[in-house]
Amino acid sequence: MLSIGPHELRNNVLLAPMAGVTDAPFRELAWRFGAGYVVGEMVSARSDLWDSPKSRLRRCFGPTDAPHVVQIAGGDPLDVADGARRHWLAGAQVVDLNFGCPAKKVCRKAAGSQLLRDPDLVIEIVRATLAAVEVPVTVKMRTGWSRDLRNAPDLACRLEDEGVAALAVHGRTRECRFMGSAEHDTVARIKARVHIPVFANGDIDSPKVARRVLAQTGCDGVMIGRGALGQPWLLGDIAGASFRRRGPVERLSVALEHVQALHAFYGETGVRIARKHVGWYAQRMQEQCVVHDGDWTELGKQFNRLEEAAAQLDYLGAHLSQAA
């Protein structure tokens, strides 16, 4: 059985942490559909943000978070260690350190994938964090800073030596951001050099692709990020090694349930947050469903114009009735 520290995973398909996406409602859906392990949204190590409304919501974990995993981003070893300790004392069972986020606003603060330019600082952060908590520490990173600095294989060995429990590696450099295709040859080199679990990440959007990446890399599992947008069942499909085509009725039913959960979790703010998710559901329907009555993307466009929670629910309910 695959484990991270003392925590046994129910399968080897993990939900990646995505800021603004993998909140409690999304994680609950992914878990219910069969994800083996889910990670909360990235949080800042900064202590002054601990009590912000956004940070408090990102600390909300439920029974489907098994274990309760928090991902922390920061560039100062003491700050990250302090943040990790606060989250551990608040109930975190695994601390994941972010050395992979390519967003400019994160990298400008010398955090995320920016740190891959300074492996020694990465090790300082990891060492300080391990000393601050009594739970497993994992790392999510990219293959390096640029095509000329794909230093993740060497860094992975150092991370294992420090005591990191598992690695998730996105098959792009920081320089690539999300452009082009993920390359998993570097991920394979990482897996060949360490003994801890390694999870491949990047452009894995179907059971077929997952099987190919696992065969190519020898990794212990896969971590799914953007592929799950608008289709939280994808992780369960990959874990089951089969793709079941879902029609509009099933997809709209899940979208409606998701929107209801967002309204309940966020209150008024949930109306705004629901828009992007429904846009993703609509995009997936356009890509994967036979269109019987117009353009599915129009559903997302019209939904974006709705200002009230009741109007959003009525709109999706009406489309669900029409599709049935």
Q: Can you offer a commentary on this structure?
A:
There is one protein chain. By secondary structure, the chain is α/β, with parallel strands linked by helices. It folds into two domains: 3-239, TIM Barrel, CATH 3.20.20; 248-323, no CATH class. It is 44% helix and 13% strand. The protein contains 13 helices and eleven strands. The chain has helices at residues 24-32, 53-58, 77-89, 104-107, 119-132, 152-162, 185-193, 207-217, 234-239, 248-266, 269-288, 297-303, 309-323, and strands spanning 3-4, 7-8, 13-15, 37-38, 42-44, 69-73, 94-99, 137-142, 167-170, 198-201, 221-224. The protein has a nine-stranded parallel β-sheet. The N and C termini lie far apart (41 Å). The relative contact order is 0.11.
Which labels suit this protein?
324 residues, 2 domains, 11 strands, 44% helix, alpha/beta, two-stranded antiparallel ribbon
Short recap of the structure:
The chain is of the alpha/beta class and 324 residues long. Helix content is 44%, strand content 13%.
Number of helices: 13
Please identify the top-level CATH class of the largest domain.
Alpha Beta
Q: What is the number of domains? A: 2
Radius of gyration: 20 Å
Task: Outline the fold blueprint.
Layout: E1 3-4, E2 7-8, E3 13-15, H1 24-32, E4 37-38, E5 42-44, H2 53-58, E6 69-73, H3 77-89, E7 94-99, H4 104-107, H5 119-132, E8 137-142, H6 152-162, E9 167-170, H7 185-193, E10 198-201, H8 207-217, E11 221-224, H9 234-239, H10 248-266, H11 269-288, H12 297-303, H13 309-323
Parallel strand pairs: 3-4, 3-11, 5-6, 6-7, 7-8, 8-9, 9-10, 10-11
Antiparallel strand pairs: 1-2
